[in-house]
């Protein structure tokens, strides 16, 4: 176990060093998030629909779309010089590889969200100050689940043509439960309602995380071994 | 008798049953008081929705067994089941609006069954696209199994999120017959229809499976 | 010790099926170097990938003393990350092999020095020439001091001097093992001249099958080349396979 974690950390750190050195993917994802937020601003009629009603949807559509850009990158970078073959021939355990990729993806998405959230507050003037801690909690809870599935699926599609498109299509139905949950909890938070009203959705998000993180950790080996 | 033949026979029997269902539904089952004749489509809609979901569950179960047994027949079954499930999903998604328009006054409603079937449909499309994108049969079977198992686990979450969304939101009261409260004759027709759809599922899958067989021989 | 028993592997199905490995068996002990010669598509890479545990063969088994950890594999590709420096690549691979952190740095420096990369250690891989990248890839494969080395056309892209140096290095590696007993080397190439000097055993592979497997004996390069031509070209009527 200790060794698997050490290997996962080595993989994650390598990915993050590579990412922060080239920065293309990260900058693209952040810019993309900003763009989506901007477009949303022009796509609504502020006199007809109060911002606060649309805000949770805007936030989560932005986050999930930006996250999908991030997840494509995870295994594409292993195809360069067939580094993946080297990884698979080494004593690196498959679970260690998956967890490493998952951690790198989570950090990556967290960075995008950390930039996206203040932009969102700025553009839409949503009072998040009072609910910041629970909001961050919900973001973490929902993000973990769909990034876990996305990481598994990006390994599945990496060698196919149009991998980017295929990933979006197969990931879509899996985004539904966390997205519904996250939007609903966020709406209640913005509405100033107590967290106890969201227990059902929070349980849904937590159950989704538990089921899909363990399932993906188990199934990952079948996506990389020949 | 070859497998394809058997499949064709079962399908025929299923279609005859379905015709029987409609004769019964139109001629011998009372018209639902509130919904009028449009309610008749319900006999097509609900069994198809049930089998859309059952087909996904079977795809997932076949995937689990495939990963352990590595038997290509399991994969062939999963592929057949997914294709038939897709067809059933399309039936639900087209009959739903036809039913919904006269009853609810709009073509599309985010009703629980319709919504879950829509997500299942997306799931099927993704599954079939992945199958089409991988050339090596062994790799394809493995990838399909992984995706199928994830799909199997997603089914309860789709239900749960749609259910939570509905129960926590005040919704206009919709007229919706739920099976146990149906009058006896309607229930009988409905059960008959379920049998017809089960036969259709088995028949279609058997035929599709048999076609896959000759593909690989 | 490295042994293969009844390895068989095919790709594809039906009429497009290719037999990449056909009943391949051999045993090598420390100090032995098996040179595998075969035309393009003979199945050399497939064999090395099976030995490295990357492809699970459809039949047969591989046994390696020390398991996966004991293998160093140099493939067609370099397995290096272009945007990391040579040293960073080496440190990463060292950590995957569970080498304690304080030992990684000195070990990387040692291997880099041995391959003449000392002054280029801190350059990103993308800035290296093909031959230098190949050397870096060899350094990466040696970082954990493997006792079994699998080399798939390791001389590709190396200049004459570097190729000669690599031959000397491999000769040394074969002789002085970690436990003093020497290492096992498996070297695959389609160029007979490249491998004979190092070999203690030679195999000719054709359509997945070892058509010849014997100790080198006293045979020189020209004799081997002649035997290879007879074993491979005569029967296929050409120099390519499958
Ligand atoms: N992933 C694969 N899918 C399908 N066929 C493959 C695959 N890998 C190898 N083959 C086929 O298997 C046979 C053996 O290939 P292999 O790469 O082992 O040959 P090789 O001896 O290394 O050739 P070369 O000298 O060109 O490197 C070839 O006919 C090749 O086309
Ligand atoms: Mg080769």
Name a few traits of the molecule:
heterotrimer; A: 226 residues; mainly alpha; globular; B: 217 residues
Any overview of this molecule?
The complex is a heterotrimer of chains A (about 230), B (about 220) and C (about 240). Chain A has about 230 residues and is mainly α. In chain A, about 80% of the residues lie in helices and about 0% in strands. Chain A has one domain. Chain A is built from nine helices and no strands. Chain B has one domain. Helices cover about 80% and strands about 0% of the residues of chain B. Chain B has six helices and no strands. Chain C is α/β, with parallel strands linked by helices and about 240 residues long. Chain C has helices at about 45-50, 85-95, 100-115, 130-140, 160-175, 190-195, 220-235, and strands at about 1-10, 20-30, 35, 60-65, 70-75, 150, 185-190, 200-205, 210-215. Chain C has a six-stranded mixed sheet, sandwiched between helices. The mean pLDDT of chain C is about 85. Classes of the chains: A mainly alpha (about 230), B mainly alpha (about 220), C alpha/beta (about 240). The interface of B and C includes residues 136, 137 and 216 of B. Bound molecules: adenosine-5'-triphosphate (ATP) and magnesium ion.
List the SSEs and their pairings.
The complex is a heterotrimer of chains A (226), B (217) and C (242).
Chain A (H helix, E strand, L loop, with lengths): L1 H21 L1 H19 L8 H29 L3 H7 L4 H31 L7 H26 L5 H28 L8 H21 L1 H4 L2
Helix pairs in contact in A: 1-5, 2-3, 2-5, 3-5, 3-6, 3-7, 5-6, 6-7, 6-8, 7-8
Chain B lengths: L2 H26 L13 H28 L2 H33 L7 H22 L3 H31 L16 H33 L1
Helix pairs in contact in B: 1-6, 2-3, 2-4, 2-5, 2-6, 3-4, 3-5, 3-6, 4-5
Chain C lengths: L1 E10 L6 E11 L4 E5 L6 H8 L7 E6 L6 E4 L11 H11 L4 H14 L15 H13 L5 E5 L7 H16 L8 E6 L2 H4 L5 E6 L2 E7 L5 H16 L6
Low-confidence stretches of chain B: 170-180
| Total domains of chain A | 1
Q: How many structural domains are formed by the residues of chain B?
A: 1
Give the DSSP E fraction of chain A (strand runs of 2 or more residues). Answer: under 5%
Residue runs with pLDDT of under 50 for 5 or more positions of chain A: none
Helical amount of chain A = over 70%
Overall outline of chain A: globular
Order of helices and strands of chain B: HHHHHH
Kindly estimate the percentage of residues of chain B that lie in beta strands according to DSSP.
under 5%
The gyration radius over C-alpha positions of chain A equals 18 Å
Describe the sheet with the most strands of chain A.
Answer: none
